[in-house]
Specification:
By secondary structure, this protein is α/β, with parallel strands linked by helices. It is built from 8 helices and 28 strands. The two termini are 48 Å apart. The structure holds adenosine monophosphate (AMP) and magnesium ion. The site of adenosine monophosphate has 20 residues, from helix 4.
């Protein structure tokens, strides 16, 4: 019954062979519902921050020493060899040290508070202790005092909403006094491989079979973006099996990623099923590799049909799925999770472009003398996943252009 309706709908709604820009725009019309949760800071690695974080403290909280040494009055140390009497010790976490008067000094450790009266530090290495006195043999430096709030002030907003929480962000959040933080709930993303030829790595291969590999890479890409990958068993090339798995995935997950079955082949069932029973937004994107992806919704759940060729599934994830995930999680445009940085590279050799398509060849990006260089080291076939390991970048050759040695072009430097 639905078939006629669906076809009508598609004849007006579905777009074919769209640019990457248009494809991203269309996917962003179908976000998943973003939710947030409060979690302990210790569990927040790799998550996307859902609030601005302001500092609860001044950093440093008090003037303190950047060196192990002696807290002094600089005026007492102008002559090399001056002798000062030791009044006590200031240690990190210790008692408030006594004030330092003229001709006096206080032993001080890194991070310990500066005693009243002192205005400079002499390093241990520049001193000689003699009984209850110390001879000053080097400079007294005011710059070795770390001033209260020179890094952060109470109330200063130092971490923005949408930031990806990596090691430095976690340390900063802790410094600012946040033990619990609000983060985006990791979207559950179904990973479904399709194809009769696929068996898990480690299993015996019968004639015509290959190891299923896409789900491993795609799941890792999801996790890197701050999502949660949910693995489904490989779906064989039957419409009923595929429909059943998509139904479960739509119930259990926020989004669905399939791989394989989206081209023109007789068993390209993801495309057929989406055409007949799903809501297709677009099919085919003008990129190489990775031309045949589709996007739409299955029973209301956003679905990306990634191409089966291993390189294509990675490239489509990086160029199409990742901007969508960022959009849905309201990730910060610069500080949010990302899989690649856009850079300028100088081509070492000729790189073939693609007529009418944005061409993303695998290249090795390296630091040259004055610029980043890009070179090719393996066969570029979209079936050769080794090319994603032997290289660390993708060219962004505009449609219909060729890359010649010495050309400066845009590229994605993969993280
Ligand atoms: P398809 O789009 O289903 O025709 O698949 C295109 C190519 O990718 C074929 O050579 C498939 O065997 C291969 N392929 C599809 N899915 C996977 C997968 N999950 N892991 C590895 N190779 C795959
Ligand atoms: Mg297939």
């Amino acid at each position: 019954m639905g078939r006629t309706l669906q076809l009508d709908h598609h004849s007006t709604g579905m777009e074919a062979s769209v640019t990457l820009q248009r494809a991203i725009e269309l996917t962003c019309h179908s976000p998943f519902e973003r939710r947030t949760e409060e979690i302990p800071l210790g569990d927040a690695h790799g998550r996307v921050l859902a609030e601005h974080l302001t500092s609860k403290v001044d950093d440093p909280r008090f003037d303190n020493s950047a060196m192990d040494g002696w807290a002094v009055r600089a005026a007492d140390c102008e002559i090399e060899g001056s002798t000062l009497s030791i009044t006590g010790t200031s240690k990190a976490g210790g008692e408030t040290p006594a004030a330092v008067g003229s001709g006096e000094t206080c032993r001080i450790m890194t991070g310990a508070p500066i005693p009243e009266g002192a205005d400079a530090i002499v390093m241990v290495e520049d001193s000689e202790e003699v009984g209850n006195t110390v001879r000053i043999l080097g400079p007294a430096r005011p710059g070795y005092i770390r001033k209260r709030a020179e890094n952060l002030r109470v109330g200063q907003e130092a971490l923005q909403k949408g930031s990806h929480l990596g090691p430095a962000e976690l340390s900063l959040a802790a410094t600012m006094g946040h033990g619990e933080i609000e983060v985006v709930v990791r979207p559950k993303v179904a990973v479904i491989s399709t194809g009769d030829e696929l068996v898990p790595p480690g299993a015996e291969l019968a004639a015509g079979q290959i190891h299923e590999s896409n789900s491993y890479g795609v799941a890792a890409l999801i996790e890197r973006m701050g999502g949660q990958a949910v693995h489904y068993d490989v779906v064989h090339d039957t419409i009923n099996g595929l429909r059943e798995t998509l139904d479960s995935a739509a119930r259990e997950c926020d989004a669905i990623l399939t791989s394989g079955g989206v081209s023109m082949g007789k068993w390209d069932l993801v495309r057929r099923l989406m055409e007949d029973e799903g809501e297709l937004s677009f099919w085919r994107v003008r990129i190489r590799p990775g031309g045949p992806p589709l996007f739409g919704t299955w029973k209301g759940t956003p679905l990306f049909g990634l191409p089966g060729n291993p390189v294509s599934s990675h490239v489509v994830f990086i160029s199409l799925v990742s901007p969508w995930l960022s959009h849905c999680m309201e990730a910060h445009p610069e500080n949010g999770p990302t899989l690649a940085d856009k850079v300028k590279v100088k081509l070492v050799e000729r790189i073939k472009g693609a007529p009418g398509k944005l061409c993303m060849r695998r290249v090795r990006i390296e630091a040259g003398e004055n610029e980043l260089t890009a070179s090719v080291h393996t066969h570029q076939g979209s079936g050769n996943i080794h090319s994603m390991v032997a290289h660390n970048g993708l060219t962004l050759l505009p449609p219909g252009t060729e890359g010649n040695p010495g050309d400066i072009i845009d590229a994605l430097w993969l993280r």
